[in-house]
């Protein structure tokens, strides 16, 4: 009887195990459709959406605007005599643009500026990242793959004449390569175009430009060409609108991120292979990733892009601020600032060198860490991509099997006997070994040409970057992991420039990586020394980077590299009404003289801003205790390495807050 009970118990355990296996298989088969909504489901669970009408409490210390910058307003309209373009001009400019999203966007802005400078008609440029890929959607081609052509042409009617293609007479001659092609550098001066290119344009009526460096005009122009700088702003921030399918998905993601009235923070890691190779940051990674970075660095040295040695001390470069902040370091900084673990963090950028494993520490600190793939459905992604020709899943076919007759013929032609024994057959190359994007490292010293699948992925990255760009610009706070890398325009710098132009008072962190590297490498936390407490130093630095001092510091470091990363004061004006509300007259004077050449906003902008400020003050009257003006925290920004005595502002900060 005892034995029979054991048998029945064992049979029950087997039945339960079999039932559990069936449940797991069912869940695994259905997880493909539900996985895309897991992030949104977790949002709902954390925030208890639909429970009452209680609005969530939002700390203005973490999400509020910077009051000292509210007087800066976008103003890119012409401010002097600005004649409309004439149809009887010097000719046509036809361009091909190479590079990713950042280089493409910067190059288009420069092309429009050059067309205005040379009094020429601009032909819609070709974006080679999309044209090189075969089989992408026929609905969108080249420029229209990411941008709205009609909006682009209409928005610049008063600046440059833009056409979709060359006239038939010139197009035939262009195909016969009868016209000269130039490859200008991204630091080309206006005099280069007026002296070298303009005579050829007048002679041939059409010229070609090939842009590979992310631009074709120097960032800083003389004061006499300030209107051309404002033209750059009108192109970047008004004319270059994404096509409706991209905007629809991007706005949908913003809506989901702000569900239940919650704010979100956008974070761009900036971990790109080219940037890491340019600055010699190979040793901060491990295994095959180090080899890939070093290979790319060797290519850059051979091409003359880098004038440095191949092997450098990556940790010394990181200490100098040349290498990016790793995701785990950004998580530590955000926790030190006081962002709770349930904060919604959106990871932007189509390329994350090192894969998802580098985000594991940040995901452990912030459970609501999401990106494009986890916040959208498959159908929404397909709507952006459009109908495409499928690519063969197995492009690596084994060699054909020889027949017995062919083998005998080869054996007879092999030469006199005795022959050496044939070599043993090589180990077969398995599928998972060949499809890896870095699988060539173990087989060859040369990187293979991109496959059709790789070319299509490069085209898709333009779409993902466009969506992430909109989500990052609309974010309540933005934190760059790497910007101003010097190797060309980068995603974070473009986003920061757009946010400064559109709403300078938005919370855009501008961290000094060199100073933060010193703090992160510091092994001593002076708990009882208020002026040297680690948490207080981090908060003081990041709060100061939000303010006017942070903008001025970024101005001195990035203006000479990229105009679109810092489009003020040329494309902004200052409303004087806001200054009257500040209690400190000395601070008002500093705000008024932030940059040389600042203009006062027109009277109609003053009235609009005054009405908006009145409504905002009435709406935030009840929670004024949360207001914070980070501009008062920037007194130690320039001398942040000195050990100063505690200030009143420091005493108000609780390191455990």
Distance between the termini: 66 Å
Rg value:
29 Å
Main sheet overview: 6 strands, parallel
Low-confidence stretches: 30-38, 47-54, 578-592, 619-657
Mean pLDDT across the residues is: 80
State the helix count: 27
Helix content range of the residues, please? 40-55%
Q: Please state the overall shape, judged from the principal axes of the Cα atoms.
A: globular
Structural class: alpha/beta
Please report the total strand number as a whole number: 14
Structure description:
This protein is α/β, with parallel strands linked by helices and 657 residues long. It is 45% helix and 7% strand. Helix 4 packs across helix 9, helix 6 (149-155) runs antiparallel to helix 9 and helix 10 packs across helix 20.
In short:
This protein has 657 residues and is α/β, with parallel strands linked by helices.
Give the topology, please.
Layout: H1 2-34, H2 38-47, H3 60-63, E1 72-74, E2 92-97, H4 101-117, E3 121-123, E4 126-127, H5 128-131, H6 149-155, E5 162-163, H7 168-175, E6 181-182, H8 190-204, E7 206-211, H9 226-239, H10 244-257, E8 264-268, H11 273-279, H12 287-303, H13 314-319, H14 327-337, E9 344-347, H15 360-365, E10 369-370, H16 372-375, H17 378-385, H18 404-412, H19 431-434, H20 452-473, E11 477-480, H21 491-502, E12 507-508, H22 513-521, H23 534-546, H24 548-558, E13 572-574, H25 585-592, E14 599-600, H26 603-619, H27 648-651
Helix pairs in contact: 4-9, 6-9, 10-20, 11-12, 20-21
């Amino acid at each position: 009887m005892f034995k029979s009970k054991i048998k029945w118990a064992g049979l029950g355990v087997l039945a339960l195990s079999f039932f559990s296996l069936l449940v797991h298989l069912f869940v695994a088969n259905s997880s493909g459709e539900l996985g895309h909504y897991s992030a949104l489901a977790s949002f709902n669970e954390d925030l208890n959406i639909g429970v009452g009408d209680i609005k969530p409490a939002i700390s203005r210390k973490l999400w509020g605007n910077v009051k000292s910058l509210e007087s800066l307003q976008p103003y890119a309209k012409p401010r002097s005599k600005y004649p409309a373009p004439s149809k009887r001009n010097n000719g046509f400019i036809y361009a091909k643009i190479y590079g990713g999203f950042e280089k493409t966007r910067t190059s288009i802005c420069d092309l429009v500026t050059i067309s205005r400078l040379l009094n020429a008609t601009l032909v819609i440029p070709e974006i080679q990242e999309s044209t090189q890929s075969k089989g992408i959607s026929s609905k969108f081609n080249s420029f229209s793959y990411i941008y709205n052509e009609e909006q682009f042409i209409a928005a610049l009617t008063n600046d440059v004449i833009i056409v979709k293609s060359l006239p038939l007479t010139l197009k035939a001659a262009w195909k016969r390569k009868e016209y000269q092609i130039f490859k200008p550098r991204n630091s080309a001066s206006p005099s280069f175009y007026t002296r070298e290119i303009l005579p050829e344009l007048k002679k041939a009526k059409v010229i070609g430009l090939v842009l590979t460096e992310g631009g074709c005009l120097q960032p800083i122009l003389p004061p006499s060409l300030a209107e051309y700088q404002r033209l750059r702003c009108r192109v970047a921030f008004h004319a270059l609108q994404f096509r409706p399918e991209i905007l629809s998905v991007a706005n949908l993601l913003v809506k989901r991120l702000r569900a239940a009235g919650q704010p979100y923070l956008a974070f761009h890691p900036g971990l790109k292979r080219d940037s890491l190779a340019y600055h010699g940051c190979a040793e901060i990674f491990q295994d095959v990733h180090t080899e890939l970075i070093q290979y790319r660095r060797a290519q850059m040295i051979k091409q003359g892009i880098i004038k440095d040695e191949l092997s450098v001390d990556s940790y010394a470069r990181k200490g100098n601020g040349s290498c990016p902040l790793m995701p785990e370091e950004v998580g530590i900084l955000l926790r030190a600032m006081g962002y709770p673990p349930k904060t919604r963090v959106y990871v932007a950028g189509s390329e994350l060198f090192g894969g998802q494993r580098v985000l594991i520490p940040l995901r452990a600190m912030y459970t609501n860490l999401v990106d494009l793939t986890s916040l959208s459905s498959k159908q929404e992604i397909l709507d952006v991509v459009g109908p495409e020709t499928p690519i063969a899943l197995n492009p690596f076919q084994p060699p054909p099997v020889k027949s017995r007759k062919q083998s005998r013929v080869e054996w007879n032609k092999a030469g006199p006997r005795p022959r050496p024994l044939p070599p043993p057959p090589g180990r077969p190359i398995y599928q998972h070994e060949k499809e890896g994007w870095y699988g060539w490292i173990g087989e060859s010293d040369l990187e293979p040409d991109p496959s059709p699948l790789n070319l299509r992925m490069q085209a898709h990255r333009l779409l993902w970057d466009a969506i992430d760009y909109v989500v990052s610009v609309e974010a309540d706070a933005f934190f760059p992991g790497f910007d101003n890398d010097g190797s060309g325009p980068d995603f974070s710098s473009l986003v920061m420039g757009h946010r400064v132009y559109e709403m300078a008072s938005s919370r855009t962190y501008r961290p000094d990586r060199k100073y933060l590297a010193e703090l992160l490498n510091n092994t001593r936390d002076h708990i009882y020394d208020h002026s040297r407490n680690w948490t207080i130093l981090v908060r003081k630095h990041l709060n100061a980077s939000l303010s006017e001092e942070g903008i001025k510091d970024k101005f001195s470091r990035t203006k000479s590299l990229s105009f679109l990363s810092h489009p003020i004061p040329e494309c902004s004006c200052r409303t004087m009404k806001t200054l009257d509300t500040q209690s400190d007259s000395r601070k008002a004077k500093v705000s008024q003289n932030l940059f040389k050449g600042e203009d006062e906003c027109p009277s109609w902008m003053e009235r609009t801003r005054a009405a908006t400020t009145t409504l905002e003050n009435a709406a935030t009257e009840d929670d004024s205790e949360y207001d914070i003006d980070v501009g008062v925290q920037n007194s130690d920004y320039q001398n942040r390495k000195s050990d100063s005595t505690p200030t009143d502002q420091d005493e108000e900060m609780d390191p455990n807050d």
